[in-house]
Give the backbone structure.
Amino acid sequence: MTVRRVEDIEPARLSLLNAGLVEASNLTECLAVDFGPLMRASMPGIEDKALTLMDSVAGTGISRRMALAGRIILERCGLGALDRLHTHPSDTVRGWACFVIGSAENMPLSDRLDLIRPLADDLHFGVREWAWMAIRPHLAGDLSRAIALLAELTGERSERLRRFACEATRPRGVWCSHIGELKSEPERALPILEPLRDDKARYVQDSVGNWLNDASKTQPDWVRETCARWLDQSPRPETAKIVKRALRSIGSNP
């Protein structure tokens, strides 16, 4: 039976999660991890003051805690900690690596994307989400450069990297700030979207459909026109699936 409430997680299982010995198997387990004990177990060089700070935010949202963990590790251990974090058995600790990269200042966007790449391609669903969330502010802050760099990922063999290119730039997204420029000018992201319009991976199809559905909230006519053009130029089942998901909020009729 799938555990849907944090309180239903067996104590022995929770102990393993907090010790960093196993990965979370679902979102409920991701949310249940206690960052204080996990940081003590996985980052023994972090001093008590920082650990106490981590303990003090235990009751706050997970996004805030992830960002704080990334800043603490960066300030105390620097980018050199990434080698250890990247290979840690805990998906939460690997997620912290995403926010270490996101917290680094004065880093060229291309370098940031190079560092986040293995985490965006991680086998664990949670790490892949943290990867795009952690660097999204930097992408939004240099949007033209970001789109050009992410467009290069649309030809990758890994469906996880192709999906990352799309998901990272969703105009509205989930658990993240909106990108106002793409809400008003979604056509700017076509260098990313066009190569994925008939992607064979359902993981990518859903992301592209969700991207366009986001855009339909502010630019419905553009989304309808884009979907109609795609169906005309690429009459394939994969494109039809994307279009159906894209138009679910507004329909295909004017």
